[in-house]
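Hey,

The postdoc asked me to send both predictions to you directly instead of through the lab channel. I've kept everything plain text so nothing gets mangled by the mail client. Protein one:
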Amino acid sequence: MSPLPYRPNVGAVLFNQAGLVLIARRADMPNAEGHAGGWQLPQGGVDEGEDLRVAVLRELAEEIGTNKAEIIAEHPEWLTYDFPPELQRMRMAQRYRGQRQRWFALRFTGVDGDIKLDADPHPEFDAWRWARIEELPGLAVSFKRGIYEELVRAFGPLAR
């Protein structure tokens, strides 16, 4: 068990009007079309003292180029995952054992054209699409799969 702390993090399950969820392909995995782990939900770190609801909208703006969304639900618990051994050389893994996440369900209030992955000079994602929430666990890397299964259970009813 690592003595390192978990990095505080927020995640977004962004639903469109049809009840589909936005997933995005990591820019560092462009050939991951059919592979688990290449696609994920927007998520990111929380600044010291930052309100979690503010943080999730900020992360959406940074990662997908828009924060045109309204929060419709918050998962009641912090969910955690540890970084696997193959990521231990990653700079963040040298400071944190993994991530401690608070997840939010949001309703997208914009149009698809509002999503601009290149809004950041160093985009995290290079493609995005709408998916059924039930697809999430199959898209996740193994160390995040349990969290995505929990998100399907907790937020799945919102897709209807």
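Protein two:
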Amino acid sequence: MNSTTMNGTVTAPADWRDFLALCKPRVLTLVVFTGLCGLLAAPVSIHPVIGFTAILCITLGAAAAGALNQWYEADLDAKMKRTANRPLPAGRMDRQSALHFGVGLGTFSVLLMGLAVNVLSAAILTASILFYVLIYTVWLKRRTPQNIVIGGAAGAFPPLIGWAAATNQIDLLPVLLFAIVFLWTPPHFWALSLFVRTDYANAGVPMLPVVAGTRTTRNQVLLYTLPMAAAAVAPWPLGMTGAIYGIAAVVLSGVFLLLSARVCFNNETDQAKMKPERQLFAYSIVYLFVLFGALVADRMVLA
């Protein structure tokens, strides 16, 4: 069956690539990686099949959250250049299919996690999906410029889930990993929103640069980077990691602070010329991958 765009134009029916796009694969990669690192950093061994199942469930749960986010925000996505070609606003899929896909994936991921891994990890997975869909997408996104600050908790759950899958408990280290991702989210997304703020303004999304202006946003980028860097380095002096992670955390966080300071002291208002903001956004992704990778490498050496 053909579907229609927001303006009524008939397009081709959805195929597997559209369902994959609903899962937000680029975001999914980071979510799955931090979940895997949480699992591998745990001080216990886990059966490979159980470990694979846990990561599969994290993947499916995050994909479900992405699909339900796009189902609810199809009208917003249609108003922004960078999201207008997603399956729903582009008319390649109807909203009901996206809803069923998201609910089905989410339900299956939670049930499988609970039955094959443990109830604690399934409960945290459930909380992460519901938080992203109900708290961030439905409640916060259209109502407050603090949407990213509070909503950032949704993306911070995977390390907790991975650790809980391996140990069936929560300890201080995974809590610090949660804090790192939680505090990383505002500077990461605000760097993006600074150079695409027109998109958010056109869609009526109250992102901080739209509501409070670029100067306030730049100050907040640096302000949130400071506790993020402290949380990233903290596991080393607390004796929870070795020098491999500790040195990596110091160096990586130092570069993050430098780039954040450049953003803070930049007064450029032309979005096309916001080089420091683009550099910070790109680096922030690399930062999280390398930092969590260093944690796993450190744990393997210590083991």
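Summary for protein two, as requested: The chain has a mean pLDDT of 92.

Thanks,
C.
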